[in-house]
Amino acid sequence: MADDNFSDADTDFQLPPHPIMVVLVDDQPMVAEAIRRMLENERDIDLHYCMDANKALDMIKSIQPTLILQDLVMPHTDGLTLLQSYRVSKKTRDVPVVVLSSKEESEVKARAFALGANDYMIKLPDKVELIARIRYHSQWYINKLQRDDAYRSLQASQRQLKELNLSLYQMSRNDGLTGIMNRGRFDEVIVDEWARAKRERQLLALIMIDIDFFKLYNDSFGHLAGDTCLKKVAEILQGGLRRPSDIIARFGGEEFVALLPNTGLEGAVKVAEELRGRIGAASLSHSESDVAEYVTISLGVAAVMPSDQYSSDSLIEAADSALYQAKHEGRNRTVVQRSLPAPEKGGRKPS
After folding, report:
1. pLDDT for the residue numbered 343
2. Choosing from 33, 254, 255, 317, which is the catalytic residue?
3. What DSSP string runs through 123-140?
4. Is 273 known to be catalytic?
């Protein structure tokens, strides 16, 4: 690592690479999760997310990003109004802004560029194109910052802010053991996705997943081995979801859950069987299992067109009921719940 203590006489000194810091301002958690997954392997790109338009300007002033991804349609304050506020503020007036919109309308594009947008993309954008544009616009801004005498202190504060935000992000949204979405964050996401699916009249599917005989695994091989098994299963499940909008989370203990927006039963069952096959193909040894010599999973699948008659809890309960049946029938299988429970019924079945 280069020494930050240098004098102007060090003519051969070159500043270390500036981190690319992106703030996404969008009220749709599904979009935010999709973009996060597009960028998660880009080690030099640090993504921050703001879903409240009223807090966007203050957050951007605090973070001082190299690029803003701005949604056009947001509740209370539209994206173009926010764009104007960025250009008025001294701290944000030069930060590149890439507008995200679900529609490609010439009039809207023209107005966005007139108000100071640097680029315009239709969401969800192509991953390769999005990364290329983030790098292009950020590099322009970074070059500008590097000509500024305040750049060195800004770089130090950004390093500290990145470490703090990464820590806070992981604690609030990610499961500490497996690294995937935790139960608290999942509970927020499914409520939002339920409301969105109801508004847009789209199907929403859920897969409940349980590692078969995991207690025996823990008892026989120890908790450290059990933790390793959980992390490996989470990694395999995460890798088995192909669409950016699909979500995998740790539901609790040895249970996981997959949320599949705009997906019916047939598609959800196909995903469930692919996940079950991937876990089996990994051949994680489990000599104490009653169904196989390796780790297996049981899955319960449910899907529904959300309506006022039910809530997101109804979908969870339906998938959970199917999972209970899969375990009752012998485990290492997928069972489908074709109807949601009556609204007055509740409670989870015993594991």
Report:
1. 60
2. 254
3. SSPPHHHHHHHHHHHHHH
4. no
